[in-house]
Design brief:
Keywords: Membrane, Transmembrane, Transmembrane helix. This protein is α/β, with parallel strands linked by helices. It is built from twelve helices and 13 strands. It has a nine-stranded mixed sheet, sandwiched between helices. A two-stranded antiparallel sheet has the order 4-5.
Length: 403
C-alpha cells in the first residue's frame, strides 16, 4: 500500500514558488551588494557623511538629474561618464595613474585631493551620529607616480576665491587651503594671489582630467555654503560631454572595493554555460515533480514474509536453474507419506506394500483413478507441463483419500 502524500499539489506548488522567490531575492542581494555593509565609515569618499566626506555632492548630483552611482570594481570603473576619484593621503600614485589612464579613453576624470586628517567622533556624545568625524589637522598627499609634475601645498588663501565666471567661494578654513602648481594646469578656481585651488590638466591626447586641490570646495563641510556647491557643480557640468549625465564615485581607492560576486560570475563566460545547464535541469526536475501522479510508491521488500513467499522464491530459484527433473520424485514421495499417514499406514514402511494399500483404498473409493499409475507418470515426467499435469492427478487422488 502506498503511503498518503502529506502535501497536496497546491501546497507543493506554493512551497516551490516560495523557495524560488527566496532564491531570486538572495541573488538580487548578492548582485546589488546589499550584504556588503554600510559605506558611511567616516572616510573622505562619495559615501561619507562626515565633514570630510562627499555624500552631499553625491546627493546634489542626484537631485540635479545626474545618473550617479558608486564604482566598487574594475567593471564599474570602465563605464562611460565622469569618474570622480577621492583617494586618501596614503594611496598609491601608480594605482591612481592606472585608473585615470584606463578611464580617460572612455570619459572625463575628476580627482579631489585630500587635506584633512580626521578621526571618528564618539557616538556616546549627544547628537553625534555614526560616520561623523573630527578634523584634527591637515596633510598634503604624496602620490608618486601620478602627475609628478604637479606640486601641492597648504597655506592661507588670499580673498576673494573665485572661479572663471567670477563666482565667489566661501571656504570654511581660509587659513588652511590647499593649492597646486604645474605648467600643465589650466586654472578654474583661484584666490587673489593666483593660487590654483581647482584646475584642468592639459593632456596631449585631449582627454579631460580635472583636479580640485582644495577639498573644502566639494566636501560636506564646504557644501554648508551655497557658493561652493554652485562652483563644484558648474565644474562637473563643464567636464561632462553634451548629453552625458552619468557620474560615478570611485570607492576602490578608499578600501571599499569588492570582488565580483557569485551572481556576476554565474552569468559570465565560461560559467554561463554551466548556469544555463543548471537552470534547464531545475526546470525539468520541477516539471517532473509537479506532473507526477499520486504519492510516491513505497519500496517493496526484496524477500517478502510468509510461507507463500518462501515457496515462490524456491520455485523461482528452481526455474532459474532449470532443474525441473529434480521435482517429481520428492513430490511423489511426500504425497505417499501424507496419504499413508491419513490411512493409518506406517509412513516409512515398504514402499511397494504402501503403494498396494493405497491402490486398494482408491479403488474402493474411486475405481476410475489409479494411484500407482499417477505416481509412475509423475516420476517419469521431465518437461514442466508434464510434471504439472501429473502432479495435479496425484494431488486429486490425495484429496480423495485424505478428506
Amino acid at each position: 500500500m502506498n503511503p498518503r502524500s502529506p502535501f497536496s499539489p497546491l501546497s507543493a506548488l506554493a512551497l516551490v514558488l516560495a523557495g524560488g522567490a527566496l532564491l531570486v531575492a538572495m541573488l538580487w542581494m548578492l548582485g546589488a551588494g546589499v550584504a556588503a555593509g554600510d559605506i558611511n565609515d567616516g572616510g573622505a569618499h562619495g559615501g561619507g557623511r562626515g565633514l570630510n566626506g562627499y555624500g552631499a555632492l553625491y546627493r546634489l548630483l542626484e537631485a540635479t538629474g545626474h545618473d550617479t552611482d558608486f564604482a566598487r570594481d574594475e567593471a564599474a570603473l570602465e563605464q562611460p561618464g565622469l569618474l570622480i576619484l577621492t583617494p586618501p593621503q596614503g594611496a598609491n600614485g601608480a594605482d591612481i595613474a592606472k585608473i585615470v589612464t584606463r578611464h580617460r579613453a572612455i570619459g572625463p576624470v575628476l580627482v579631489i585631493t585630500p587635506k584633512w586628517l580626521a578621526r571618528d567622533a564618539s557616538t556616546d556624545q549627544p547628537g553625534v551620529a555614526r560616520g561623523w568625524v573630527r578634523l584634527d589637522n591637515t596633510q598634503a598627499p604624496e602620490w608618486q607616480g601620478f602627475l609628478d609634475d604637479v606640486r601641492v601645498a597648504i597655506g592661507p588663501a588670499a580673498a576673494p576665491v573665485v572661479d572663471l565666471r567670477g563666482a565667489h567661494a566661501a571656504l570654511p578654513t581660509p587659513a588652511h587651503v590647499m593649492s597646486g602648481t604645474g605648467q600643465n594646469l589650466a586654472p578654474r578656481v583661484v584666490d587673489a594671489k593666483g593660487r590654483i585651488l581647482a584646475a584642468t590638466y592639459r593632456q596631449q591626447d585631449g582627454a579631460q582630467l580635472a583636479l580640485i586641490f582644495e577639498p573644502d570646495l566639494a566636501n560636506n563641510a564646504g557644501f554648508a555654503r551655497f557658493d561652493n556647491a554652485a562652483i563644484t557643480l558648474r565644474l562637473i557640468d563643464d567636464l561632462l560631454p553634451p548629453g552625458q549625465r552619468q557620474v560615478r564615485f570611485d570607492l576602490t581607492l578608499n578600501g571599499l572595493g569588492r570582488e565580483p560576486n557569485l551572481l556576476t560570475l554565474a552569468f559570465t563566460p565560461p560559467y554561463l554555460a554551466v548556469t544555463l545547464a543548471l537552470i534547464l535541469a531545475g526546470v525539468a526536475v520541477l516539471w517532473r515533480a509537479y506532473a507526477r501522479f499520486g504519492p510516491p510508491l513505497a519500496p517493496a521488500r526484496d524477500i517478502a514474509f510468509g510461507k507463500r513467499a518462501l515457496a515462490e522464491n524456491s520455485a523461482g530459484l528452481i526455474a532459474r536453474a532449470r532443474r525441473f527433473h529434480l521435482l517429481p520424485a520428492p513430490y511423489a514421495d511426500a504425497a505417499r507419506g501424507r496419504i499413508a499417514a491419513a490411512l493409518g499406514l506406517a509412513p516409512h514402511g515398504d514402499p511397494a506394500m504402501i503403494d498396494d494399500a493405497i491402490e486398494r483404498a482408491i479403488g474402493a473409493r474411486a475405481p476410475d483413478h489409479s494411484y500407482i499409475a499417477a505416481s509412475a507418470a509423475l516420476r517419469a515426467a521431465r518437461r514442466p507441463a508434464d510434471i504439472l499435469r501429473a502432479a495435479r492427478r496425484l494431488h486429486d487422488i490425495e484429496r480423495l483419500l485424505t478428506r
